[in-house]
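Hello,

Our lab assistant flagged a job as stuck in the queue for most of the afternoon. It eventually completed. Since we weren't sure the result was trustworthy after the delay, we are filing this so someone can double-check. Below is the sequence as submitted and the structure that was eventually returned. Let us know if re-running is recommended.
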Amino acid sequence: MIKQQLLNRIADKSAVIGIVGLGYVGLPLMLRFAEVGYKVLGFDIDQSKVDALMAGKSYIEHISADSIATALTRGFEATTDFSRAGEADTLILCVPTPLNKYREPDLSFVLNTIDSLVPFLREGHLVSLESTTYPGTTDEELLPRIESRGLKIGENAFLVFSPEREDPGNPDFTTRTIPKVCGGVTEACQEIGVALYGAVIDKVVPVSSTRAAEMTKLLENIHRAVNIGLVNEMKIVADKMGIDIHEVIRAAATKPFGFVPYYPGPGLGGHCIPIDPFYLTWKAREYGVNTRFIELAGEVNSNMPDYVVSKVAAALNLRKKAINGSKVLVLGIAYKKNVDDMRESPSVFLMEKLRDLGAEVSYSDPHVPVFPKMREHHFELSSVPLTAESIASYDCVLLATDHDKFDYELLKAKAQLLVDSRGKYLQPADNIVKA
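-- returned structure --
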């Protein structure tokens, strides 16, 4: 029986684990499967990533080169050759799902990946999609493509959706300890999916369908987006009233029930929170549903860079300076503290808006030494070292991402003007403006 054979191979660790997409999601998953004794075959379309991994190097800051080297000794191999998919028993898809310029789902990475794999699918394959997407993607898009090979899902091939829950830079949670939601197309699919993830993750949470699993991931991220939108709006109200919203949040968080603290910032960043809610908004239209909460939160959050820039302009204006011609140093261009991940970073939007207004923009980020090549954003810049002299030379220093590595006392002492969009400075000072 094909199902039992695959379950046996997972149980005795003779199954070969294929992971497609070796980025912030796929790479930690590869390390975990290798750690417990599986042979892992990693696929990526980026030859430079494959070359780096095969040389024992890492391109993600919080993943060490030593861990890659150890995985290689355990049989890990990376390749750009998708025709080798047949060597793997499971194919776990960890590819991006961005939005297009109309804020509609862009499934091209997922669909191009599955289309590249389809010619090499065989009996006994388990395909698992981890990329965040709208409910229905797995059974509407992946299932028919896989069955076009003459395979029958649930009988001689298996399909699940299990959303990624990586939190880069969070030392409290690892791939192993974050519970894993899994939904299968059929009961047989579900059984194999739970067995696969149960071999490497402490707690697997089965749900009744792929659609329930897809919706679970969206709810998690919409919950954050809406609450961050709320607190960003509250920040603007509090600022108008002369109240420090961070003081208010800290006070409210002392309530031991019924309140969860969320913190405002210069906008939303990362590959999940600014993007995923719009996957549901788009799909909901098919059912005649208007997702007003989601769209309102999106509107508030996407306006935050403009709000921060207006605070910079007002602060410079008080000092008889215009943004046009001012030297502005943006502190932190990763999307959150203590990581090198720049996907959807609000800092980059701030830099562009300031540049468009005529500012001379520089940045400092200990995690991003050179501004990377991005699809939509272009800066030929390197990180500025923070010294007493360099800090004092800028008309404005804008704290966008509050990395722990910054010397906040030095910044406060030497900056002519420091605009704080993260609530890092609790005490008022003549040269500090909250944004």
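-- support follow-up --
The delay was a queue issue, not a problem with the job. The result is valid. The mean pLDDT is 95. The chain has 15 helices and 13 strands.
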